[in-house]
Structures are given as C-alpha cells and as structure tokens.
C-alpha cells in the first residue's frame, strides 16, 4: 500500500474512533430555550418535549441547572413545545417555526398550578435572532416556489441569494456561483445539499441541480458564522430537501415556452425589417419543463418517504453571428486553388453565403463573398430525481437522501457552422446517510456519510471534421473548426460527525470532517491548434499564419490527477452569560492536501538555482487555524431587538483549474508558430520555403 493511501486510511480510522468529524453544513436548525418561573428564576430539570406537527415525531430533553435546553438537530418545519415541571402547569407552545442553520428560540415562563392543568400558546412568526452572531437568510418553500429566480445562464434556487443583504450579483467575467458575499470573490462560496459537500473542485460552484419543488428550505449565511462552518470565507449555501409527513401530499408542474408564444426582441425585429439573410420571424426556442412530487407515511409517526422528478427539454438557438463567407461559386474556385488536402477538408465545411457585393483577392483572382448571419442551435435534455427516506427509531432519527442529475447539451462553441457545436454529457449522483442520536437529555450526536459522483464530458459534435481551428480576418473574423475536448470525474467520499452537549449556561459543540476526493481530469488548451490568418490567400496557400501572437498550439498531456483530501475539526461554546446576552466562542482547523498532480513540479528540480529558485512539491498549508468570536444581545428582553457582532478568520480552498495550469512546461504548454514546427506532426506550413517576414 502506498504511503498516500496509508495516510488516508489512518485518517479515516482516527476520525471514526474519536467520533469527531466536522459538519460543513446542517439539514437542521437548532431549537433552544430557557424556562423561568413566575418570578423570573430559572427552572432546572424540567422536561421539554418537542413534537413535529407534520410527522408526530418527538424529541425529549431536560433543562439544565441554568434553566436552558437545546436540540441541535431539528428538521425545518413547525413544532409543538411542551414543558412540564413539578409544581407548575404544563405549557404547550404550538406552531413554533424552525429554520435551517438558525438558533430558533422558544423561551417559556411557567405558572404555578397542577400538572393536569394545561396552558396552550400559539407562536407567531420567527423571532429576531438573539442568541447567535451569525447573519442568516432563510427562504422557505413558499419563497422558493413563488419568487422569480430565472436569470443569467443558470436556473437555480441559489439565485435567491441576491435578495439577501450584503450580496451582489456575480460580476461579468468571473467564475463561481451564488454571487459575491460580503465583498468576497464569487469563487469563495461553500455549497451543501442536505448537509453534505456539493462543491465543484475544478471551477467552484455547486455540482447538483436540485428540483425546486423538492426544496424544503434554502439557507444562506453571509457573515460571522460559527466554527462548525468552513471551507470558504464567503457565503455558506445550504439546500435542504423535503421529508414525508403523516399525510399523503404531492404536486405537479408543467412549464412551456415556445417560438409561437414569444414576441420578438428589438434586435430581431430590426433584422427582420432589414431582410437580414438567415433571420426568420420566429427564431427557434422551445422550452418545456415538467415533473411532480409525492410524499407520505410508510409507518405513521415512524417511517416517511418523499420523491420528486423533473425533466427539461430545451431547443433554442445562440445569438446571431454576422460574417462574410464565399458564395457557392467563390467556394468552388477556392477548392481548385487549395494547396493541399488539409486545406480542402476545411473548405468543405465552410458556410456558403448568397450572392453579395463583396470580394477577396486570392492569388490575383477575385473571389465573390457576401454577408451571412448564422444562428447555431442549442439543446438541453435533462432528467432530475430526488428520493428521501426518514425513519424515527427510539432516540435515533435516520435519514437517507438520493439525488440524480443527467443531461445532454449541445451548444455553439465557435462562430459558424452548427456542425462545430460541442456536446456536453453531464452526470451527477449523490447518496447521503444520516443518524441524529439523542444520547441523553443533554447530549446529541449527528453523523453523516456521503458518496457522490460527478462527471462532465465535452466532446466534438463532428468527430470526423478537421480538428484545427482556422480564423480568417478578411472574412469578418470567422472561425472554422472544432474546440478542445475535455472531461473530468469527481468522486467524493465524506464522513462527518457533530456532538452537542448542554451543560449549565454552556452549549458545547465538537466536530470535524474527513473528505476524500478522487478527481482525474483532462484538458489541453488549444490541443487542436488555433491558426489565425490575416488573409484568405494565406490560408489557401497553407502559408505560415501572419498573426503570430494569436496562432498557438497546445503540446503535451492534458491529463491531471486532482486527488486530494480534507481533514477539519472545530470546537464551539455558546455561553449564555445572562438571559439577554449570549457569547459565541469557537475555533476551527482545516488541512487540505495538495492535488496529486502537483507532485510533477519536482521534474523541474534540475533547474534549481540555490538561493534563488527551487522546484519541488508545493508545501501543504498546516496553519489554517480560524478563531470565531461573536455576541448577541437582547437589550429589551422581549426578543424584538437584537444587537450582534463578531470576528472570525476563514480560509478559502484553491480551485483545481488553477492547479492544473501550473503543470511543468515539459508536460503541458502552448507554443507559437516558431516552436510549433519543432514538435511531432507539425503543420504543413512549417516546410514553406518563404515564410512571412518576422518569423
């Protein structure tokens, strides 16, 4: 067994034995409170029963010597909180809302009397946060389904993030998802689905597409999150899917938009009025989406199921591209002039323009060209599935979550023929198992396991077409040719565990996590060669392209192994100093290994210059210690006003697109027109006896 594998096995074993592994995000909220008598004194050893009003599942805890109680693993929904203590009337507070990733408070003041007497109170809307410094934004099912979120290029629940304070839309030209949170980069966000990791290692952003109707709640933390949250310094995005209840419930949806229903935009109207070739009154656009959900009990009050399915069928077109192209007669003349078979093969895929007034001169002969507008098709066929099971057994709440996304997309990759479009095959599947165990009335353990597989394969729509990209400036900067193939496969293995213990005025949390990612990928920039010609004559004669700075070819291997691991741990203490003041103290540690492929840097060690530059394996960062300090103060004691503040240090994860482009030049590089002639199978123009000046 290799040393790397031994380290991985040892780390997993150590974490299991210690029962500490960090929880990146939760699928639950915390429900806590303090019980007082009529004079405001604390009531210890009171029995608190929390019952889900939809499923009938109950959890029982006891108040501490400070009168406080805490349940850290409560599924989102509405609850009845019943409090019983000797010498006091039983109090039931109904319709208490629980939101994901929040400290939800249900304080109580008991009245003297017999336990057989019952006082019932109906809670109102969710209260102001008075026990945590974290800034939370929660969007329930109603917001998810009814607030328009379609925009940009992604149809996602995560677009609701723009409604949160201190959040801005993703700047143009930047990567990532969810926008910029608190001034951080869009790449600096952390994504989870049902409490387990959902981050894309290569480009950042989420891997999964979650069905809107399957979302119970979307929670976004923007600042001052506690020590149990890490991975990134930006936003903490957490999607939680629905569970079944004691009632059969379901939904159905169908959405349709097509060319016969849509009006034309102003640019298309102008093109129609000007009789622009290739522009019709109804550009292709047919978008259909449908699906449904169903959930209910298998065993009442014990075992529940929920399932959802959605399909997307989109046929559209890219934006119009205007260029010049040879007429049929001009193309026939160019074929007769072609210097070799490689040029002829590329000419065979040239677009043909109707007769036009323009021309280009090739070898002293005028070649007729005309304007042409090309609209390439877009296709997206996608199937999404969600399947959930929840089982309540004694002091355990078991859960399983299965998610599947599969799609095939075709989209324009270059400016011209649809034959050069690129295919994308996208597959994502995720399974998570959870166990929330109430060890006793003051201690709860939350265990999560995950396996996920995510893959993307970009391939050429026409595998038999010439591979080279050819751009000819005197034809309107039109590009003919295929794009670079690429693929990636991300396997994620995760174990995480969280322990919460209420003791007096303290609520202690201990946890950690271990993630192992197996991540092979392939990408070689300009692997087919990008050749840019100033004139059509250069191309027809297969001369060395005169646009040297924009004529490049990739060389080497595009394979990169991004396998890496994460080990993290945290401690947190929420100290209720007074009934109105809570202090949040925490410390988090994260350790990421470097991608396996980075070890190739040692190949350059022969070029070491002592005291100046040394090539070797990048050093791992072992000092990622992040303290978290915060407070929450209720100045009036009514729960209607809150003053909060905090300080924390968080660390961002390097995305692997950055790691792969640092490969040594002997493994992967781009070459200009001079060095391209030194590799195997050089372009034909390398043997041209009279290359252009300047080369």
Structural description of this entry:
- 8% of the residues lie in helices and 45% in strands.
- It is mostly beta strands and 695 residues long.
- The protein has a domain at 28-122: Carboxypeptidase-like, regulatory domain (Immunoglobulin-like, Sandwich), CATH 2.60.40.
- The chain has a 15-stranded antiparallel beta sheet that branches.
- Strand 18 (286-299) and strand 19 (303-317) form a beta hairpin.
Structural features:
45% strand; 8% helix; disordered N terminus; mainly beta; 5-stranded mixed β-sheet; Immunoglobulin-like; 695 residues
Summarize it:
The chain is mainly beta and 695 residues long.
- Residue ranges: pLDDT <50 for 5 or more in a row? 1-24, 689-695
Q: What is the CATH homologous superfamily assignment of the domain at 28-122?
A: Carboxypeptidase-like, regulatory domain
- Oligomer type: single chain
Structural class: mainly beta
Total helical elements: 7
Topology of helices and strands:
Layout: H1 3-18, E1 29-36, E2 47-52, E3 58-62, E4 68-74, E5 77-84, E6 90-98, E7 103-105, E8 108-109, E9 118-122, E10 135-140, H2 141-146, E11 167-168, E12 180-181, E13 190-193, E14 196-197, E15 215-223, E16 236-241, E17 249-258, H3 266-273, E18 286-299, E19 303-317, E20 321-326, H4 328-337, H5 341-347, E21 358-362, E22 365-374, E23 377-393, E24 396-411, E25 422-440, E26 443-460, E27 469-472, E28 478-480, E29 486-503, E30 506-518, E31 520-523, E32 530-533, H6 536-540, E33 553-556, E34 559-561, E35 564-578, E36 581-592, E37 624-633, E38 643-648, H7 656-660, E39 668-671
Parallel strand pairs: 1-7, 1-8, 6-9, 13-16, 27-32
Antiparallel strand pairs: 1-4, 2-3, 2-5, 5-6, 10-15, 11-12, 13-14, 15-16, 17-18, 18-19, 19-23, 20-22, 21-22, 23-24, 24-25, 25-26, 26-29, 27-28, 29-30, 29-31, 30-35, 31-34, 33-39, 35-36, 36-37, 37-38
């Amino acid at each position: 067994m290799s040393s790397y594998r031994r380290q991985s096995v040892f780390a997993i074993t150590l974490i299991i034995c210690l029962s500490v592994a960090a929880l990146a995000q939760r699928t639950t909220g915390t429900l806590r409170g303090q019980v007082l008598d009529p004079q405001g004194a604390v009531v210890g050893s009171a029995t608190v029963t929390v019952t889900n009003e939809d499923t009938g599942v109950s959890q029982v805890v006891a108040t501490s010597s400070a009168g406080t109680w805490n349940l850290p693993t409560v599924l989102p929904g509405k609850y009845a909180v019943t409090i019983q203590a000797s010498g006091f009337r039983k109090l039931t507070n109904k319709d208490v809302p629980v939101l994901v990733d929040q400290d939800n408070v249900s304080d109580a003041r008991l009245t003297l009397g017999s336990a057989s007497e019952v006082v019932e109170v109906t809670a109102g809307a969710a209260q102001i946060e008075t026990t945590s410094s974290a800034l939370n934004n929660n969007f329930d099912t109603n917001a998810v389904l009814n607030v328009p979120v379609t925009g940009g290029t992604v149809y996602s629940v995560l677009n609701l993030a723009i409604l949160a304070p201190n959040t801005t839309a993703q700047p143009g030209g930047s990567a990532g998802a969810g926008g910029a949170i608190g001034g951080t980069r869009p790449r600096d966000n952390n994504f989870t689905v049902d409490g387990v990791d959902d981050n894309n290692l290569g480009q950042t952003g989420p891997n999964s597409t979650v069905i809107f109707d399957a979302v119970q709640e979307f929670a976004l933390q923007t600042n001052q999150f506690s020590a149990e949250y890490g991975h990134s310094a930006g936003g903490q995005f957490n999607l939680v899917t629905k569970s079944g209840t004691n009632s059969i419930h379901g939904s159905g949806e169908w959405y349709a938009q097509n060319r016969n229903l849509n009006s034309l935009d102003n640019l298309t109207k102008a093109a129609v009025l000007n009789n622009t070739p290739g522009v019709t009154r109804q550009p292709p656009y047919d978008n259909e989406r449908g699906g449904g959900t169903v959930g209910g009990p298998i065993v009442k009050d014990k075992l529940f199921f929920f399932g959802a399915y959605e399909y997307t069928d989109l046929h559209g077109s890219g934006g119009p591209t205007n260029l010049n192209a040879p007429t049929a007669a001009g193309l026939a003349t160019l074929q007769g002039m072609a210097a070799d078979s490689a040029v002829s093969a590329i000419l065979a895929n040239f677009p043909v323009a109707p007769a036009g007034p323009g021309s280009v001169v090739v070898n002293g002969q005028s070649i007729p060209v005309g304007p042409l507008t090309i609209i390439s098709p877009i296709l997206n066929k996608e199937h999404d599935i969600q399947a959930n099971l929840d089982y309540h057994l004694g002091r355990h709440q078991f859960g399983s979550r299965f998610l599947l996304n599969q799609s095939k997309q075709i989209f324009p990759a270059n400016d011209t023929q649809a034959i050069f479009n690129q295919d994308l095959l996208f597959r994502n599947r995720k399974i998570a198992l959870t166990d929330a165990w109430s060890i006793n009335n003051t201690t709860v353990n939350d265990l999560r396991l995950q396996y996920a597989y995510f893959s993307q394969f970009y391939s050429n729509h026409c595998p038999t077409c010439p591979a080279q990209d050819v751009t000819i400036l005197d034809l309107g900067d039109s590009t003919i040719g295929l794009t670079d193939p690429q693929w990636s496969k991300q396997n994620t293995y995760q174990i995480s565990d969280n322990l919460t213990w209420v003791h007096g005025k303290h609520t202690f949390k201990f946890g950690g996590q271990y993630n192992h990612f197996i991540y092979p990928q392939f990408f070689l920039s300009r692997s087919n060669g990008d050749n840019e010609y100033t004139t059509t004559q250069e191309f027809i004669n297969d001369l060395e392209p005169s646009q040297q700075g924009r004529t490049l070819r990739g060389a080497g291997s595009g394979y990169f192994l991004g396998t890496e691991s994460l080990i993290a741990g945290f401690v947190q203490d929420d100290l209720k100093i007074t009934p109105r003041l809570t202090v949040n103290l925490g410390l988090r540690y994260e350790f990421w290994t470097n991608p396996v492929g980075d070890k190739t840097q040692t190949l350059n060690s022969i070029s070491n210059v002592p005291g100046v530059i040394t090539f070797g394996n990048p050093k791992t960062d072992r000092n990622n210690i992040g303290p978290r300090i915060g407070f929450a103060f209720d100045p009036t004691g009514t729960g209607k006003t809150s003053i909060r503040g905090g300080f924390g240090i968080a660390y961002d994860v390097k995305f692997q697109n950055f790691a792969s482009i640092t490969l040594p030049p002997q493994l992967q590089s781009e070459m200009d027109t001079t060095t391209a002639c030194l590799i195997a199978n050089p372009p034909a123009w390398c043997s041209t006896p009279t290359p252009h000046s300047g080369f």
